[in-house]
Amino acid sequence: MGPIFASTVLWSYPVAFGLVSLGANSYEALYKKDEPTNKLLNRRRIERANKSLLLLHCILALLLGAIISILLIFCSSLLPDPDIPYSPNNANFQTWLLSIVYEAAILIICFISANNLNNGRQNALEISCEALGAARLVILSLMAILFVFSRRRMDDANSDSETESLLSPEQSVHYGSTPATASPSSKDAQTVSAFDYLAGFRDLIPYLWPSDDVILQTWAVFCFGLLVAQRFINIMVPHQLGILVEHLGKGNLPLRDIMLYVVYRSLQGQQGVLGSIRAILWIPISQSAYRRLTVAAFEHVMKLSLDFHLSKRVGEVISALSKGSAINTFLDGLIFQLFPMVFDLAVAAVYFFVFLDAFYAIIVVAVMWFYLFITIYMAKYRGRARREAATRDREMDAAKTDAIMSYETVHHNSALPLELSKFQRLVKYFQEAEYSVFFSLNVLNAVQNFIFVLGVLLTCLLAAFQISEGTYKVAMFVTILTYLAQLQAPLNFFGSFYTQVQNNMVDAERMLALYKITPQVQDSPNAKPMNSCFGRISFNNVQFAYDKRKPTLDNVNFEVLPGTTTAIVGESGSGKSTILKLLFRFYEVDGGSVKIDGVDVRDITMATLRQHFSVVPQDTILFNESILYNVQYSNPNATFEEVQAACKVASIHEKIMSFPDRYNSNVGERGLRLSGGEKQRIAIARAVLKRPQIMLLDEATASLDSQTERLIQDSLKTACKGRTTIAIAHRLSTITDADQIIVMHHGHIVERGRHKHLLANDGIYKSMWEKQTKDSSA
């Protein structure tokens, strides 16, 4: 039933075409037979008849284009798809067989009816239809024959594999009769249609349309109106040129037609008046889309969870974020280039059919179709090379970023030759992929040019023959050539545009992939803001693991009272820093709960939760800006006097005042112009300026020398006074005054208490203390 239905739908176009053609011929015959004698009535009937015939002619043109499209689709079926193996099934084969029967019947009926109606004489339209029907019949037969031969080869191959011994030597290393490499991966077996691929970009549509700006929306509608007007001008330019040549051929001086032609030409094209106005009006719309898209992408990446940023190379993420313009360029080309081009080509086919005859329409449609088909067909092969080049480009950017950011490490290890060799190798890989892209592009351009020149040759030969026979005037030859030359521009554009679209889509795929990544930690629908905080923290039966096979925290329970200091100690990997990450909600607990003032942190919006924390990390990151900017970063609204007060608390104010530019001194990339102690004090000042209720110290003095450590400790005591503080400490001498010390071991809390109490317990804490005391004495 399926093949019969498919064939019925497929061949409804030729049947409808035959019926409309028969009706038009019958209407014309009856009109000539019953011609009235009254001249006025005759003139009115002629006008009505001409309008009716013109309408029928246009319908015939559309139906003829559908028939040609079916024929050309069959032609494309003879070629294997680059992404999908050529493997038609029995349903396809049955459809082809039924189509052969239907096509043969239609062809015979059309031939007999045309000869009977016109006394054995056929016009160009009828000859064209019969030729197209015969071509379809031949192609269907070829497809059926190819299917039979391919199926025989598959049967022979299966027969050989079935008779092969299961005890062959190859089977000794594999389970069963099929080698491990025989089965294609699921990724290779899966194919995605073009519609599904483009549908993946629908998430970006809200950022492309200026929904919040009525003025820009009005300009966009006006631009679309100008686009429609340009399509009309493209039709009128060659038509007006033909009229002008005809008048000049008669020896007249058609000033009105000359001026009208000049006006049309001034309005035509992207550089014409209409195109220029449209381009100028579209600038703010394009900029608005780019601004929303890039800002949204940057915001999305910054809102992704910590695990994403720890697992991705910075260079690759930056490269992906920089591709926002690719989507914008693709949108502009799609609206103002591709859609108008398709419309112009369709109108050209109808124009040639209505004002000339079917032969010209067939040539134009065939040239257009083969041009577009070969472009898309070859571009599928080129897409793989383009993706490979894009991947190599990202790897090259990532390697550059890593090397430049690790400048000191590279030179400390005398690794410049190694980095240069690595970068040269990546450049070589990129250029190899790039060579494939450019080579295939030049081959594609040559094939495109051959197809178009062949179409021009056929059109010129046909037009010259008809003009020599007196069917058309010389002016029509000029119109035809002008129109063809006018069509070459959009066709050539499509070749480059399709390549550009591929490049843009490949570039945009990474940005789209970023959009599709959802943060592992998000605000719950019922989350509420925390406007005030007293600083009471509690961990209740907390379970957490980065890798589910190996728990990081197991049944962790402790409480921190407001205004007190809790220190967490233990060997590396015991889970100390993880506690701070869970408190800050960089990760979600797998079990249990983390509460602040009795409220689960998952029920608090992350933005307001983090406002109540200040963090002093072990490795302070400073921006390549002034000291004032870096200190003020935690509280941009703070006054200069407040910044100075925070720096005094951190014992860094006097040092800053000794710099030539004082608070306006630039700290360099990642703060490299400052010493380790100075950077830590800047971090403390920044934390104090935020005025938090909770201070988190993540081994804030672990990388400093003893003298600097003592100075920093004094600053920290002042900064943490009156605030709830959780300090992760490597040096136990820095936390002897803590109200509570928690000892971690393999994700468990094994000891807790004050310094003197833990020393008296003779446990892990005491052994750590004695070891550090012994090392410092030595």
Can you describe this structure?
α3 packs parallel to α5, α14 runs antiparallel to α18 (474-516) and α24 runs parallel beside α25. The protein has helices at residues 2-10, 12-33, 39-77, 90-117, 124-163, 186-189, 194-199, 205-208, 214-249, 255-267, 273-303, 306-311, 314-321, 324-355, 358-405, 407-412, 416-468, 474-516, 576-583, 606-610, 627-632, 640-649, 653-657, 676-689, 706-720, 755-761, 764-777, and strands spanning 537-544, 553-560, 565-570, 591-596, 599-600, 613-616, 694-698, 724-728, 740-745, 748-753. β7 (694-698), α25 (706-720) and β8 (724-728) form a beta-alpha-beta unit. By secondary structure, it is α/β, with parallel strands linked by helices. The protein folds into 4 domains: 2-156; 203-516, Up-down Bundle (ABC transporter transmembrane region fold), CATH 1.20.1560.10; 537-612 and 692-777, P-loop containing nucleotide triphosphate hydrolases (Rossmann fold, 3-Layer(aba) Sandwich), CATH 3.40.50; 622-681, no CATH class.
List keywords for this structure.
778 residues, alpha/beta, ABC transporter transmembrane region fold, Rossmann fold, 4 domains, six-stranded mixed beta sheet, 27 helices, disordered N terminus
